[in-house]
Request: fold
Amino acid sequence: MTGSQAPTSTVVRCRINGRDVEMLVPVRLTVAELLRDRLGLTGTKVSCEMQVCGVCTVLVDGNPVSSCATLACDLDGTEVLTVEGLARGRNLHPVQEAFMAANALQCGFCTPGFIMMAVALLDARPDADQAEVREWMDGNLCRCTGYAPIETAVTVAASRMNDSSLEDDQ
Amino acid sequence: MAVLPELGLVRSSDLDEVLAAVGHDYAPYAGGTELVPATGLGLRRPAAIVDLKRVEALKGIEVDAGAGSVTIGAAVTHRRLSDHPGVREHLPTLAAAASRVGNARVRSTGTVGGNLCFAEPRSDLGCVLLALGATAEVRSARGARTLGIDELILGAFETSLEPDEILATVTVPFEPPGMSYWKLQSYERPTLGVALVVTEDRWEITVGAATERPTRIVLAAGDTAGLAAFVDGLEFSDDMTGPPDYKRSVLRAHLDQTLGATQ
Reply:
């Protein structure tokens, strides 16, 4: 097979924030480019483009991924969640509420990435201890607020989410 | 944002079709953890990517109780590896190492095969798999061959794979008693990794991350002179994580703590 024979675009069918999407995308298109440039979902930020800083974090089938370094063609058949998909109407997600309450942001550029990573963590490990919180969050960088309020916010969100799931069970 | 150059896509669930496509300009592609940034930076210029993720034979984790081994597909992600009950039971040190590779996003998409074949020296899996005596099955349209980890990884970013070959699976003997893995790490990648298998009469030591490729030695327990000579003889890399003397000192201190005097 030669380069001219391999198609340079492909159809992607996926669900993004609960909405079915079917698009023809270039193979070279990243998930971040798809979200920001084609779908107008600019809550996802881009910075290092090396999988190091975490601002571009989105969830694919519940797993946190770097949207800057993931190709959009890999989204076929998946469910994608971005920061725009967290709130229910006017009600923010418990992680968003906790970030506000703990002042866990300053300039806010890293915040969508931190919030998505925290959501991924608390969905996968609702009882995450401090070591697990640090292990999951240490791949996200913040250059102004610092990490202590962010860790507090994640811990507070975890206990609120566990409390409300207990209430749901009753 | 850096725009990637035009890329073709070969995608099939059939291993033979995938193998027929892989070649010089047709890069095997799974998690994209390294290939996508490297292509963005212009370090790699593939004409097309050959997606391995739809081939079932490259995605399995099979525990063979009779043989006492686990066979792991090259396209298995770090998260699947670290969460797999059979891996946690029979290869707990590997599972723990996989649970701390890179960051949580890298563990979602990055694969065992990508980690080994990129051959970045500052890696955990190469060191742990060499310590475990793992073997790699390499496939191409021409056939298959089986290599030890030290025959697969030849140096920094260098493997013995031919352009038309892919790593298909890694077969790992069950973890022996007395195994541990410790690493020094500040950012995304380890500065130094040390895998030990310590029994009453043997010291098996594998050092990774601080040298161009993982290095293993087997000594009689208590052979402190042999251990010191091994540490002295390692060629540590000089990079942003520290000069060779620093890495040698950290390794000595760790071995002193875990095995007793090395000097």
Observations:
- Chain B touches chain A at residues 1-11, 20-21, 25-26, 32-33, 36-37, 40, 47-49, 51, 53, 79, 99-100, 102-106, 108-109, 187-188 (CB under 8 Å).
- The two ends of chain B are 52 Å apart (CA to CA).
